[in-house]
Write a structure and sequence with these properties.
Blueprint (H helix, E strand, L loop, with lengths): L4 E6 L2 E9 L3 E5 L10 H5 L1
Antiparallel strand pairs: 1-2, 2-3
């Protein structure tokens, strides 16, 4: 059991990762799967 999504804040920007399945693990995301309408660029300002 893992977190569905994790966010990292580094160098003034967000990096998002989503858990696809137990075999594949986490993959990089462009937008949040949990909050798809959230503008990550705007949030980082």
């Amino acid at each position: 059991m893992g977190l569905q999504e994790v966010w990292f804040w580094q160098n003034q920007q967000f990096s998002l990762y989503g858990l696809m399945d137990a075999d594949e693990g986490y993959v990089s995301l462009e937008t949040s799967q949990l909050l798809p309408q959230l503008d990550m660029v705007l949030l980082a300002r």
